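Forwarding these from the shared drive since the link keeps breaking.
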Amino acid sequence: FECFISGVVIAFLSFGVGASAIPFMKKEYLDNRKWVTEDEFSDMVVLSNLLPGPTISQIVMLVSKKKAGYIGALAGLFGLLFTTPILLIIFSFEHIVKQISAFILK
């Protein structure tokens, strides 16, 4: 569950992708949670930059896998990737209900 929460925190703190999120991730994983050391985090950043795909999700998965194995990696990735769509659905629900009720009451 901690890996999921850390993914949600990273999703809220980071705007955009890639290099802009790395300082937030470093603060979260090194300073706040102390899940990895400075050298381990640096190695993870370098490895994620070498691999194709989004850097931020790869770092979240690597750190979460170190903390809680493969289940933790999936939980961290889920927290990172699905926070924004779930919030958009929740916040747009009121608008959708208003549109439907306006259509029905016509």
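-- next protein --
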Amino acid sequence: PGPMPSNFAVTIDVDRNVVSIDPKITVTFRGGRGINYVYAVDVVVTRSDGAVGKATLSRPKVNDYIEILGTTGTDRVQVFVTLVTKDPPPGPYLIYDEELPFRSRG
């Protein structure tokens, strides 16, 4: 449906654990102007080994989060938001799409 309309915008944080025995990726919902219109936040992690992990936050509240196991390689993280609206269309809207390399401490 194109870019998410700015008056419905929400913010997320994406963090990557730096411990190789637990290379999880955490996506945290931070709210925003559109918080009351968010039906779901879908997270898709395409891992460097080809596996795909998916998880959903339904009607998220501020600081709700999802953890998905990544790899010690470079994993692609995509975050989609679906709204409860008819106008604009409910989506899903892609609000985050990054390849995150694993970086260990030190």
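The CA atoms of residues 28 and 65 lie 4 Å apart. The longest strand covers residues 74-83.

- D.
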